[in-house]
Amino acid sequence: MDLKSKINLEKLPRHIAVIMDGNGRWAKEHGMPRVFGHRNGVKAVRETTEACTELGVKYLTLYAFSTENWNRPEAEVSALMTLLVETIKKEIKTLNENGVRLQAIGDLSRLPEKSRKTLLQAMEDTKQNPRMTLVLALNYSAKWEIVEAARKLAKAAKSGEIEPADIDDEAFSNALSTAGIPDPELLIRTSGENRISNFLLWQIAYAELYFTPTLWPDFRREHLYQAILDFQNRERRFGKTSEQLV
Ligand code: IPE
Ligand code: IPE
Ligand code: MG
User: Is the pTM value of this prediction over 0.90?
Assistant: First the structure.
């Protein structure tokens, strides 16, 4: 039986987040410069997005560029930004055809003007699409986001808009850049690294973590199905005992 038909559609994760890693190593394996790996990662983005849309996953968040990634060689950063603009331009038609709404999280103000404009335009052009939301994490870091949220809430408290006692789990979630988006239930990281790298720290409090050695440019539908099946075989207890769940 093929993997897809084994998936229980009643128990799909509503939100899947992916740390797309391993482009550089993939390029190296092919004897090519790192940028070649990034270019070949686009196919994996397309397949993952399409597969999620077809299955009925409602949110897909892709970690595309971290605040720490600015520390890479300038040529690589610049190539990544160009690739972002090109890809968004190329994919917008397909996103619309497939009913995918594009959103972004991260400090977009630091992106090059052209990249930001293209991104904002694509978000505007797809904002009515009802089938799935694709969230790109760009110049994103979870610590940055948490600090921003704390600042926002402190400011509101100082001005008397809210009381410090009003700051609870929900208020904090609503101050994050992911406000309104349910927390990811499944977090996938490719390339064999077992770390979070400053991604969605608050939101993954109860996510199931799935690490695969597959390098991002090799990631295909079947790899996604495998991750979802693994997720569906886990017991999510949320602090309770196994016996309490039945
Ligand atoms: C992930 O692949 C893409 C980005 C971080 C933008 P890498 O470029 O990190 O690839 P490796 O980890 O060096 O193989
Ligand atoms: C995490 O990958 C960031 C993205 C996938 C965009 P990195 O390759 O930057 O992470 P580290 O540095 O290996 O932790
Ligand atoms: Mg990496």
Answer: yes
